[in-house]
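User: Reviewer 2 asked us to show a designed sequence for the structure in our supplementary figure. I'm pasting the structure tokens here. Could you produce the per-position amino acids so we can include them in the response letter?
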């Protein structure tokens, strides 16, 4: 079992040792694979997940063929937030965007622990606030901003949550995440590549210039980051 000092999940790391001890005993380390579906809309939430170095995308269906990313969960939070609001059913499809390690807990014991663990409640309520801000800002970004700044924003948000500069991603997958045609993603990625901000080949994208990518991004990246930083500072 992973010790608290070894964990990178910021919600769990914020829990004082006395309150964390009981929670720790019920956490199970798991490896999540790219493309793995952890929640389906309308289906019961059987486990909640605390990502360590993986990333989970929250998708809403547009129609039978298309879906759009409305949020992402990395080491700053938890996947399965409807459960803390008394809803045992997922409203979105949650798919692993970046494979890696996570800690999970069965939903029934988690509900019991959540009800009696005040520090866990406080941390997750603050995270809920930040996640809601991310979802609303993402919706505005997808509606009003062009492909290139949207892609820059998305890459920076992904980097913040996995702690890495390279990701295994296809243009087709990115098109689903950003609500763009594949050609639109290719055009935006090519523009960033020409400016030496990123490189990509065979489904792998690498960030080369973080500062330059921030300049290319729309203001949504910093808006969301500021909210998360503020919520984290309160924990």
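Assistant: Here is a per-position design you can include in the supplement:
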């Amino acid at each position: 079992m992973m010790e608290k000092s070894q964990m990178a999940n910021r919600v769990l790391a914020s829990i004082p040792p006395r309150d964390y001890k009981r929670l720790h005993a019920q956490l199970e380390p798991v490896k999540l694979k790219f493309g793995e579906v952890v929640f389906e809309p309308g289906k019961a939430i059987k486990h909640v997940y605390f990502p360590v170095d993986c990333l989970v995308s929250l998708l809403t269906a547009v129609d039978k063929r298309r879906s759009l990313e409305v949020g992402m969960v990395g080491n700053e939070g938890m996947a399965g937030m409807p459960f803390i609001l008394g809803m045992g059913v997922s409203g979105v499809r949650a798919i692993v965007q970046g494979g890696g390690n996570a800690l999970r807990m069965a939903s029934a014991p988690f509900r019991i622990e959540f009800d009696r663990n005040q520090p866990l409640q406080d941390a997750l309520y603050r995270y809920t606030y930040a996640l809601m801000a991310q979802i609303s800002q993402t919706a505005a970004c997808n509606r009003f901003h062009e492909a290139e700044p949207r892609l820059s924003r998305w890459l920076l948000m992904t980097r913040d949550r996995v702690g890495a500069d390279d990701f295994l991603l296809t243009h087709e997958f990115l098109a689903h995440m950003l609500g763009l045609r594949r050609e639109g993603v290719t055009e935006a990625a090519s523009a960033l590549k020409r400016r030496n901000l990123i490189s990509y080949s065979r489904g792998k994208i690498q960030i080369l210039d973080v500062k330059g990518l921030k300049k290319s991004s729309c203001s949504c990246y910093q808006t969301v980051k500021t909210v998360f930083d503020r919520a984290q500072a309160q924990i």
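For the response letter, you might also mention the following. Residues 118-144 form the longest helix (27 residues). The chain has a mean pLDDT of 90.
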